């Protein structure tokens, strides 16, 4: 059933055209800028933003996840340009695994940042405790472990396929629909919908707790608004279209009543949504600047080679820190 759209001659292969031309361009852009930006972010955190606090550790792990994804994209670019996968079944599964590991790892890292800010603002007496490195380490270990449990079953579902004497590294949603249907739904609900609800709940309570603090401090109000909008944009613009189209893609393959043109149209929209999910790496670069402690100063110093031997120290939280200042953890 997964090959229905490939065998039909009654409708133009618009999905194949988009896959051959759109994906290589988008993946090349994401790979270059994602690698350079996140590699630079890791260097800045390692060289200039020490000692780390909990949020810094989460940011570094988020950058590492994005680096893993960026490094996997050149293989996909080669595949979509030539139409032939030459690296074997293991690398096919590993490559697809990297995309989903980054996707759901990024979702959980952003969720952790939201929860940490919620604790600091709504429960300010615990702010000093939540800043400690051990909480960042524990959160990151949990994210990597949970992401591995979420994505692990996918390794057995991704396969190679032969078409016109060419080897195809088939995307997860284009595999056997009977096998991936329920797993895809479970992954969507627990890997995306549940974290989205947690993020919305956290920022709703943060906004309520800040109250008059924001109204007295316009820069802080703007910073809070930008951080909130940025994370919600990532969840809605990058992740939501992909999850919707993945469900529709698998459903179109399992439903024999879907016409060839409908199936190809859904597949084309699904292909368009995949790089959108990868664009979260760009938004994460903006997140480092907005949420990272002194990240802008460190970046400027690094680029201009000024003060390269010095390390920017994190300022310890004073007792009279305002609620808006606590958002910087």
From TrEMBL:
<feature type="transmembrane region" description="Helical">
    <location>
        <begin position="25"/>
        <end position="46"/>
    </location>
</feature>
<keyword id="KW-0297">G-protein coupled receptor</keyword>
<dbReference type="GO" id="GO:0005886">
    <property type="term" value="C:plasma membrane"/>
</dbReference>
<dbReference type="InterPro" id="IPR017452">
    <property type="entry name" value="GPCR_Rhodpsn_7TM"/>
</dbReference>
<dbReference type="Pfam" id="PF00001">
    <property type="entry name" value="7tm_1"/>
</dbReference>
<feature type="transmembrane region" description="Helical">
    <location>
        <begin position="224"/>
        <end position="244"/>
    </location>
</feature>
<protein>
    <recommendedName>
        <fullName>G-protein coupled receptors family 1 profile domain-containing protein</fullName>
    </recommendedName>
</protein>
<keyword id="KW-0675">Receptor</keyword>
<feature type="transmembrane region" description="Helical">
    <location>
        <begin position="180"/>
        <end position="203"/>
    </location>
</feature>
<feature type="transmembrane region" description="Helical">
    <location>
        <begin position="58"/>
        <end position="81"/>
    </location>
</feature>
<keyword id="KW-1133">Transmembrane helix</keyword>
<keyword id="KW-0807">Transducer</keyword>
<keyword id="KW-0812">Transmembrane</keyword>
<keyword id="KW-0472">Membrane</keyword>
<feature type="transmembrane region" description="Helical">
    <location>
        <begin position="101"/>
        <end position="123"/>
    </location>
</feature>
<dbReference type="GO" id="GO:0004930">
    <property type="term" value="F:G protein-coupled receptor activity"/>
</dbReference>
<dbReference type="InterPro" id="IPR000276">
    <property type="entry name" value="GPCR_Rhodpsn"/>
</dbReference>
<keyword id="KW-1003">Cell membrane</keyword>
<feature type="transmembrane region" description="Helical">
    <location>
        <begin position="135"/>
        <end position="160"/>
    </location>
</feature>
<feature type="domain" description="G-protein coupled receptors family 1 profile">
    <location>
        <begin position="37"/>
        <end position="288"/>
    </location>
</feature>
